[in-house]
Structure formats: structure tokens, C-alpha cells
Design goal:
By secondary structure, the protein is of the alpha+beta class. The protein contains 23 helices and 31 strands. The chain has a 9-stranded mixed beta sheet with strand order 21-20-8-7-6-5-2-1-31. Strands 3, 4, 24, 26, 27, 28, 29 and 30 form an 8-stranded antiparallel beta sheet that branches.
Amino acid sequence: MTVEIYRDAWGIPHLRADSAAELARAQGLVTARDRAWQLEVERHRARGTSASFLGGSALAWDRFARRARLDDTARRCFADLERRDPGTARWVRAYVDGVNEGLADATAPEFARTGLVPGRWEPWTPLGVWLATHILFAGFPAKLWREQVAAHLDADAVGLFAADGPGTSGSNGWLVGGERTVTGQAVIAGDPHRWIEDPGVYQQIHLSCPEFDVVGLAVPGVPGIAHFGHTGTVAWAITNAMADYQDLYRERLRRTGAGVEALGPDGVWRRASRHTETIEVAGEEPVEVEVIETDRGPLIIGGPEGLDGDPADPTHEDGSPESVAPRDPAALREPSGAPAGPPLPADSDHSADSDHSADWDHSVDWDHSVDWGHSVDSGHPVDSGRSADSGHPADSDRSVDSGHPADPVGVPVAVSLRYPPRVTGDLGFSALLPLLRARRVGDVDRAFDRWAEPVNVVQAADTEGGVLHRVAGRVPLRAEANRLRLVPAWEPGHEWHGWHVSPRAGLTDGVAVMANQRGPAEPLGVEFAPPHRADRIAALLAGKERWSAADMPALHTDTHLASASALLDRLDALDGLTPEAAALRDRLLRWDRRMDAGSADAALYAAVRAAVVRRLAAHPAFAALTTPPAYPEVFQPWLALVPRVGFALEHLLRAGELYGIDRPAAVRAAIEEVALRPPAGVWGDTHRLAPWRALEPEQPYDEPGLSGDHDCVLCTSGVPGLTDRAARGPAARYVWDLARREDSRWVVPLGASGVPGSPHHRDQLPLWLAGDLVPVVTDWALLKKETDV
């Protein structure tokens, strides 16, 4: 069979083959050639072996991956795929064959620097990569934070830190129906907000065979095009639905002569599976990990002896980890790679400097809104044909705001994780080939019926006028308390009972907007993004009757910060300021509220915001939250107080009362502080790109300044109160034109190649910074042939 590999002017691969299987092999081969180092990092992360070449900084992740049984779950899911869908299983195997073929000739410089030799991919490795990438997407560690807040303050405080307050980031997507476009055909556009990684998390690619011809954004290490694709007659895109589909259980465990037993909800002690594994750590002694799994799921915190049996990693005094796992609890570090340490006190010489780097995490949207009175299953029937497991009925009478669950005095801390793929053996890979073969929105709809994880909001449109706006993924039906906090495994009422039916929605005035806000997925979630980005996109779209694909970058790059109102309103109410502070206050009240990289006013606002955050976080009312429990390091960023205050600042400033904190005094002190020592430059001086890399380059890049902020449509996220540096932002931008696919556009933050020094490693960065897009090329005559394989 013939497989042809072409490239366009940006080095984007275009692959043509005689069959879907040969095309999958070619996709794996090209991905290995372009992204060998990235693929091997992801393979090792999925297996929990990345510390073997990255050293102690990767140990926290490896320990979590082993204890959560990610690799074993991937194996189970692939075995299930072979039974249920052998055609897709063979297609995945073909992709893996291509990866192994490409890795055999890999020469990425990172291999020589670390001494790593590319290993062999197994058929289940792509499933492991997918699972490791998304296991923290639903943000189950946020339940640990809620426990802390409820225990040390009260249940109402949980809402103060989450309810409709700013989130760390999210994704934008919008669908403009044909009645609102200049061509009469729909346009879909958006930008997923994720870690800005080097190499990038999305791979631009074109896949063509007799069965299908698709352009889209692939996830390196996974065959096909899952999230964003255009077949010529139908296009689709997704955002994170913010659904809650993972549960944490407090376990009662005991050791016996035969092993470990766990107490179940029926009062019976049952044998838990148990074994030990050894993690190799480059330059250090190996680390042994005890892996325990109960009927609920694998243990991820503590054990029969409690937290003492869970080796703690060094932490800063503020509770943030000293070394962190790649991406998941990530650290923003200075260019030297040394940890920057905890934030400086407000009265230090650098108190107005809002670029205090610290360890933090927003690999998921973990500070969004929550309706604490909302029922998880209100109005949505159980899909009785997809039962998860049997057990006791949900206990709807249990209180959801009682703080910690009932926990007998002296019972050691042990927490298990229950997540759908571990329960069902299904990661949703059966959706991938049907998506490539889709011709109409009905095909996309049926494909997403097979979707499992992560839970997404999907938009699609076709050339016949069909549109789709729905949620896809598997969310268990269970008690309300499961969604909000840790629940006791030994009490009945917390089992899963089938799956929610996926909600659907339509268009309003010919438009649908998704930006992680409360929308069709509301019945499935707890915390959502604030409405600012969604409202801004909707307002911009309402400002013009007819839109074209070429108009969309203006929305991608909008920098208006609506969430600034809460702080500006507090500033407006102040009197008796010093002349310098009064002048600064008046200047900020005249500011256009745009977070442009070249704006000195945006820099001043960010400095005042950071000073307010630090002062609120330092108040004695929150003192109990400054030292989190000694949970494993991978969860510590969810428990760090300053980021929590920073991302909830809008709501904390607007709440009727805040535990006796004098907020006007805090705001007054903050603006006086910044007026005394204002930032010298513009927003882009401190708000700079900070891509995540598994291995820092030998010659560090001078990363550019960025426009935007975490509540702008141009969502580039720092951490107010800690750092302005942005590790998250648009991991790609796309515009899918249903009138002419050739008029579609896309861009990624860096480039198509993952090889440092390649001409296509960072060639798209200037376009990404400017908001420009590159053409989607589908005419083979305009492409340069690279080789046949």
C-alpha cells in the first residue's frame, strides 16, 4: 500500500494513504519523527516512570500515576476495546506500529541530554497517554479544598471561594449559524485554553484516505482527530463541560495476615488488592510505593497507617510543593529553573511586584462557580441501559454542607478515587474513527454518544444547515454529597447508579457560545467558569448581523476584563487617599479595562490586584488555610491559599460580609502601596509566556510579553498575588468555515515541530502573538511532497 507524506509552508503534515489503517500507521510515524521526545515523555508519564530520566521533580506525578493505576486502567480499556470494537483496536495498533517505526530513528537532542533511549509503545499506550492527560481535568482535588474550607471556616465559605468567582482558565468556542454569516454557511471558532507546552499539546494535521479526508488538531500520541476537526462537509469542536464525574472516598482500612481489608457500606470488611512497586529516580535512590485498591477504587492518599505511610515531599512554609510533577501541580519558575519560593510579605521591599513566582496548578479549571443548593440529578433521568454498578440507593437526605464526613476518631486518613474508565473499562476510543468518517452532524452526534472522558460540550455544523450543541461523556448518577466533598466509604448512599443522559441545547439568535460557563452541562457539574468570557463573546457577536471566517480573530484576541469591576468599584468608594494614591485611583477608573501587553494602566491594575490578594490571604481569618494537610505533593496546589484568593477575588470583594475582614482597608492599603512604588513598565513586561517543558533548553528563550488575562476572551493566565507569568493560554486557535474548508484558519503557540532548532519549531509564535492564523491547505497541488512510506 502507498502512503504519501506532504508538508505545507508551516511544516504541517498532510498524509494520504489507501486505507484507514495505513493512514494511522503514517500518523504515528510522522508524529514520532516530529515529536519523539514529547511522545516518550507522555509514555513514561502514563506508566509512572518519568522520574527515571527526569529525576526527583517528576516523582510526585509518578507516585500518583502508580497509585491511581493509570497504566493498568489503559490496559484494561484496550482489552475491552478489542472485545467490543476490534476494528478500532486494529486501527490503534496500526498507529502504535507507526510510532515504534518512527522512534527507532529518533534523534531528538533531549535524548542525549538525559541518556534516555526511546522505548517500545504497546497497543494500550495511546489510551494511557489520553488518561494521563485528562485524569485531573475534572478537578477532583478541589474536593480536598472544600473539606479544608468547611472544616476551618464553615460551609458558606466554600461558596465564597467558588461561587461565580473567576476561574483560572478554560476554553472558548462559538458556533455562528448560516443565517448569521455572509456565506449562508455556519462558522465554528474558538481556542482551547490549556498548558502552553513545548512541544505543543495539539498537532495540526491532515489525514486523507478513501474513507475520509479530515483536517484538525490531534493530540500527539493518540490516533485520529478527537477534539477539533473538519471533514469538508461537517466540522466539530469542544470545550471542557466542567462536569463532576470523579469521586473521593474516605476509607477505613486494616491490615491482616493476608493483606489489607476495607470496610464497605454494608458493614462487611472485604479484601483490598495490594502490591508494591518500585519507582526508579535518576540520581537518587529508588522509591517503593504501596498500591492498594478497594471496591471503590485505587487509594491515592494515605493508607492503613494514614498519611504517615505516604512519604511526604518537602514543602515550602506556605504549603506549596518544592518540586512538582510535570504539568499537573506545576511551578512557574524563574529562567534559571530554581524555585522562586513563597510570596513576599505585603510590607517587603517588593510587595508591589506582582511577579512572585510560586508553585501552583491550573491543569483543570478549579476555581469556578458552584450552586450549593443544586441537585445533581434534578430533571435528568437515569440511563438505565448503562448501569455502573449496583448497591444502595442514593441517600438524598444527607447534608451536603456538614464539613468533613463522619469519621470515627482515630481512623487513619485513607482516600480512594473512583473514576469512570476504571469502573467501565472504556475510555471512549470507539468514537474516534466514526468522527473521522462523519459527513453530517448526525454522524458526529452518534460518534459522541460513544465518548467517555473527559466530559465535553460539543458544537458541530454541516453544509446542509445542520447544527449540534450537546454534552458528551460519562457522568455517574450518585448522591449530591459525592460531588461536593469526600464521602465515607463505610456508609451506604454513596454508590453509583447508572449514568446521566447527556444534556442538549440549541442556538440563540443563530449563535451558540461555550466558555465553561453554566450552560447545557450545568446539571452535571459543581463549579463552573464565571460568565465573563461567554457574555463578552455573545455581546461581540450580537454587534454585527453577518459574520465571516475572516472576522473571527478579532474575537479570539479581545482583551476586555469585565471582572475588574469588583476591585474598581471598591477603589471608587475610597476617600481620604494620599495625593499619589488618589491620582492612581482616578487613573484606574478612567482605564478602558483592556489587558493589552502595551498598557501601563493594565500593569497598574494588576499590581493593585496582586497587593489586595496578598493582604486578604494574609488576614488572620484565613490563617488556618495557610497550612494544608500533608497530602501527597501532587494535590498541594489545589490547597494553596493565595491562588484561591486570587481567582476568587471578584466574589470575595462583593460578598456581603467576609469573616470580619475590613476589605476597604485592605484595598486602601494596596493602592497606597502601589502608588508608593508603581510598576515601571507595561503589562507585557511581567505578563510573559512561560511554556511548560519536561526539560528546560540549554539556551533559554526570551519569551514574549502577552496581552490578555484569565477572565478575558484572550485568556492568558497568571496567578494574581503570586505571578503575572502565564503558563496557560490558547493552546491553539481555529476557525472552521463550512462554506469553503480552504477558508478555514488555525494556529498553534509555537510550531508544528517539536525538535529544537527546527525551522518549524517556533515559526507560528509571531502569528499567535498577533492573533493571526495560517491557512488550512487541502489542495495537494499546493503541498510539498516529503516522502512515501
